[in-house]
């Protein structure tokens, strides 16, 4: 056998390491090539789905706010919650495209909702105010005839959670449903109640808008 010279062991180790490095580079390049060809990424590397873009119209219903007796605070409260990070984290990017204040008057409430839903075709309309038993609170009476499909389960959920905040939640008369492709829900006039109601609806809204925005949906409801 040939005599081994000093340094032969190091040369052999270097040669083996070089081969192993080449094999590792080959494996890595193979993985990258498969990913480029559309293979599924590992679960930890999956890209986040794009948020659903939602156009929203906000209607404050109040005689006094409309006449300027006091500043409307529930409208800005709705806008603040709907465009918050909480909604974006649920995959909803909300854009408020219309907002207005009308008195407690059924024809004026209905006119706004019909224009926004039928002509502008916004994805959602949220109203605030006019939902109690007071003589001039007529929002439910204005909205209910405009609904094609009611959502009684969402109303039940609003009431269930609302009573955990205050027993007076039962005095509100919420309406929720769909007109054409527009989701409509009536909220109380209090900014605090507005936030509580929207927080309650938040987990449900991605499914609502997913159904309304998808022509064919594989759902089991």
From TrEMBL:
<dbReference type="Pfam" id="PF00994">
    <property type="entry name" value="MoCF_biosynth"/>
</dbReference>
<feature type="compositionally biased region" description="Basic and acidic residues">
    <location>
        <begin position="1"/>
        <end position="37"/>
    </location>
</feature>
<comment type="pathway">
    <text>Cofactor biosynthesis; molybdopterin biosynthesis.</text>
</comment>
<keyword id="KW-0501">Molybdenum cofactor biosynthesis</keyword>
<protein>
    <submittedName>
        <fullName>Gephyrin</fullName>
    </submittedName>
</protein>
<feature type="domain" description="MoaB/Mog">
    <location>
        <begin position="57"/>
        <end position="208"/>
    </location>
</feature>
<feature type="region of interest" description="Disordered">
    <location>
        <begin position="1"/>
        <end position="46"/>
    </location>
</feature>
<dbReference type="InterPro" id="IPR051920">
    <property type="entry name" value="MPT_Adenylyltrnsfr/MoaC-Rel"/>
</dbReference>
<dbReference type="InterPro" id="IPR001453">
    <property type="entry name" value="MoaB/Mog_dom"/>
</dbReference>
<dbReference type="GO" id="GO:0006777">
    <property type="term" value="P:Mo-molybdopterin cofactor biosynthetic process"/>
</dbReference>
<dbReference type="InterPro" id="IPR036425">
    <property type="entry name" value="MoaB/Mog-like_dom_sf"/>
</dbReference>
């Amino acid at each position: 056998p040939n005599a081994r010279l000093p340094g032969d062991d190091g040369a052999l180790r270097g040669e083996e390491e070089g081969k192993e490095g080449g094999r590792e580079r080959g494996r890595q390049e193979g993985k990258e090539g498969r990913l480029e060809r559309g293979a599924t990424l590992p679960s930890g590397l999956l890209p986040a789905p794009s948020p659903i873009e939602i156009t929203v119209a906000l209607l404050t219903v109040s005689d006094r706010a409309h006449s300027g007796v006091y500043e409307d605070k529930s409208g800005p409260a709705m806008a603040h919650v709907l465009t918050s990070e909480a909604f974006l984290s649920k995959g909803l990017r909300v854009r408020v495209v219309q907002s207005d204040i009308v008195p407690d008057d059924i024809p004026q409430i209905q006119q706004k909702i019909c224009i926004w839903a039928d002509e502008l075709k916004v994805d959602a309309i949220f109203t605030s105010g006019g939902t109690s038993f007071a003589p001039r609170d007529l929002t439910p009476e204005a909205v209910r005839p405009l609904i094609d499909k009611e959502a009684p389960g969402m109303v039940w959920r609003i009431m269930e959670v609302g009573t955990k905040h205050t027993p007076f939640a039962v005095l509100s008369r919420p309406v929720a449903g769909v007109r054409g492709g527009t989701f409509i829900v009536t909220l109380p006039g209090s900014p605090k109640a507005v936030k509580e109601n929207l927080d309650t609806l938040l987990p449900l809204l991605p499914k609502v808008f997913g159904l309304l925005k998808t022509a064919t949906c594989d759902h089991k409801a």
